[in-house]
């Protein structure tokens, strides 16, 4: 078994080194080989400098970097397509979702599931919770967005946006090249494609802590809304249903 863990990074200079050390320390205790792929999404601070230092110091850390900020979705896609693992996944750089959940995810992936998503919402799975929740405005916007997301993906998933997702190799090879979203709605697009192609999805509980700095401002929610409408339009046109021929 070989794991590829993708971590998109953007202006993470303050916490990157410590957070990657925590992830690296945990993975070194596991009994399987792994690689960590840092994808620098056009950072304007010293994130790239730190990431280069980490990749030179640790053989298991790989680095992908580009100058222009292209979005979380683009970074995740680039990382997953570059990964060599039998199992692949992505997490946030702020460690908001405990890295220990990887072990539980791998068990699911080894037992007939192709997609494992973390949820912070107990309505999805017992034990999920937000230790430090988002502010009130974001919770309200998120609730409204979730209603639209359920309509789009036609699945009763209450938390699609938790940045903890794991996949099998066959799922990544089949689905990820077909994704088009470049920013925050990539999670929704992935789950919709999973449903359209009849892949099995497991949901695991996450004890989530809101990071000290959120990259999703109020403007980000409106950008996500635009992306959601793009996904809905593509799906209405049957593009996701017949992706092999139409994307």
Task: Fill in the keyword field for this structure.
about 250 residues; Spore Coat Polysaccharide Biosynthesis Protein SpsA, Chain A; two-stranded parallel ribbon; globular; alpha/beta; disordered C terminus
What does the secondary structure layout of this molecule look like, with pairings?
Layout: E1 3-9, H1 16-28, E2 34-41, H2 47-57, E3 61-66, H3 72-82, E4 87-91, H4 101-109, E5 115-119, E6 129-132, H5 136-153, E7 164-168, H6 169-175, H7 186-196, E8 201-205, E9 207-209, H8 218-236, H9 243-246
Parallel strand pairs: 1-2, 1-4, 2-3, 5-8, 6-9
Antiparallel strand pairs: 4-7, 5-7
Walkthrough of the structure:
With 247 residues, the chain is of the alpha/beta class. It has a single domain (3-246), classed as Spore Coat Polysaccharide Biosynthesis Protein SpsA, Chain A, CATH 3.90.550.10. Helix content is 42%, strand content 19%. Helix 2 links the parallel strand 2 and strand 3 (61-66). It is globular, with a radius of gyration of 17 Å. Residues 243-247 have low confidence and may be disordered.
